[in-house]
Design brief:
The chain is mostly beta strands. The protein contains 1 helix and 5 strands; from the N terminus they run αβββββ.
Length: 99
């Protein structure tokens, strides 16, 4: 799967991926907010995405391959600023190359 077109799907770029691959808008259940439902067929893989319209954020993505079904539900989606300090080398820590 990683070497197929499906392997190009990235977290944070799901909606772009569906648009770039000409996903179809499909009907879905009514929710408490407006949502768009997309479906995409890539070879033997079927993908579905639910987008929350007011925030333009994915809230669920599904991948079906044969009888296997994988679902991911997004509980929180927001942009955060990158904080380089979180990845800085800690003082007092000695880093050595493995031999």
């Amino acid at each position: 799967m990683a070497k197929s077109k499906v392997g190009e799907l990235e977290i944070g770029r799901e909606i772009d991926f569906f648009h770039q691959n000409s996903a179809k808008l499909i009907e879905g259940p009514k929710l408490q907010f407006e949502a768009k439902y997309y479906e995409l067929q890539i070879g033997e893989y079927s993908l579905r995405l639910v987008e929350r319209v007011d925030t333009h954020a994915p809230i669920m993505i599904a991948l079906k391959h044969g009888s296997d079904l994988y679902l991911a539900h997004y509980l929180l989606w927001e942009e955060v600023r990158f904080k380089a300090a979180l990845f800085a080398k800690l003082e007092g820590i000695k880093v050595e190359e493995a031999k």
